[in-house]
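Example record

One chain of 147 residues, shown exactly as stored in the release files.
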Amino acid sequence: MRASSTSFLFATLLLLGACTHLQGSGETLEQIERRRFAAMVAQDVAALEPMLAEELRYVHSNGQLENKPQFLETVRAGRIRYVSIEVREIEVRLYDDVGLASGLILVGGRLSGQALQLELRYTDAYVRRDGRWQLVAWQTTRVPTSQ
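Predicted structure tokens for this chain:
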């Protein structure tokens, strides 16, 4: 390989690596997503709160819309008790200070005392502020069960 080709390859690999990691933290958006899901399962509102933007709009798979305080209270009070969140697929795209994630998750939990197991497709949006990423929008859709 010629020197210029080697330099180009090295620069490209370096750029690709930078695009998948978040500035300053070394944590990828996928890792942040997984950490957020773990905080929801643990009902760890203290860990969850800084991950969420003040203007959060959280749309559950049943169409219910919550803002940040409402969603944190839902988790804290266990109105929806997340028992498990298994990530089956995840794709992250970064655009400067905006990060989009979409994927497929399997959620186990309890809603109003009733057990639930949902397969959900989701798309969410993060913004980078003061060197950290915060969730601004979450939208899920239930995957139909096969008959």
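Notes: Residues 79 and 113 are 9 Å apart (CA to CA).
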